[in-house]
Amino acid sequence: MRARLVAGNWKMHGSLAANARLLEALKAGLPEAEGLGYAVCAPYPYLAQVSQALSGSRIAWGAQNVSEHDSGAYTGEVSGAMLKEFGCRFAIVGHSERRGLYGEDDGRVAAKFLAARRAGLTPILCVGETLEQRDRGETAAGVAALGEAVLAYEPVWAIGTGKNATPQQAQYVHAFIRARLAKRDPSLAQRVTILYGGSVKPGNAGELLAMPDVDGGLIGGASLVAEDFIAICAAARR
Ligand code: PEP
Questions:
Q1: Ligand 1 contacts CB of residue 200 (under 6 A)
Q2: Would you write out the chain's pLDDT as a tens digit for each of its 238 residues?
Q3: Which of 218, 232, 233 is the best mutation target for the ligand 1 pocket, counting ligand atoms within 8 Å of the beta carbon and taking the most?
Q4: Residue 100 CA, ligand 1 centroid: distance in Å
Q5: 8 A C-beta contact, residue 207 and residue 167
Q6: Is the shortest distance between the CB of 165 and ligand 1 below 6 Å?
Q7: Of 37, 46, 128, 212, which is least packed with CB atoms within 10 Å of its CB?
Q8: Rounded CA separation 97/142 (Å)
Q9: Nearest atom within ligand 1 for CA of residue 158
Q10: Is 195 in the pocket of ligand 1 (CB under 6 A)?
């Protein structure tokens, strides 16, 4: 059975007080479920708070980005080794907001992926097509995936828009990614965890997360509301 995961991406939201409330609610409310893991990916300055609050709990934590470099004169960057020191298990790489707003191309995303692995982190590698790519029939080009990690299929047109992929659309692309990986490594393809992300809410999580190749979710907006994130996690149980 593949590992299942629901990870929250807090993006650039939070404060010490709001985080403390959210983390306490998650610790109290997330059910123990065999084969299902939970994580929150917090802004860098809050990783110390998150690691303190979640240490010893069933919730893992991660960062939303990582430098492709291990150390050096890279002002404003944060290395994988630094994240590891704060107990991070995950680092999101290639989120569409990083690609779109900060110009991260596939080469840089691949370098970040490798840097995360070097540091002993599990990259959550995001891939997904824009609406224009989907309309041109180029979804496959938008989701070329690589290596051993958690993958997240996040159609760019569904992120933060309130417009989610249908369960069938998500299943189709997840199965496509798995088939692509199987050409290189059939056993990797069978065991890799592929999350769906893009406007997952309590109301649509059940159907999306029930799809056979959808192994969990990467949750943006709804991960900031404890009861919504808990409801989505409950829907991810098998
Ligand atoms: C995301 O930021 O990865 C995401 C999926 O956002 P949302 O759930 O808000 O669409």
A1: yes
A2: 799 999 999 999 999 999 999 999 999 999 899 999 999 999 999 999 999 999 999 999 999 999 999 999 999 999 999 999 999 999 999 999 999 999 999 999 999 999 999 999 999 999 988 888 888 887 766 555 555 589 999 999 999 999 999 999 999 999 999 999 999 889 989 999 999 999 999 999 999 999 999 999 999 999 999 999 999 999 999 8
A3: 218
A4: 14
A5: yes
A6: no
A7: 212
A8: 14
A9: 10
A10: no
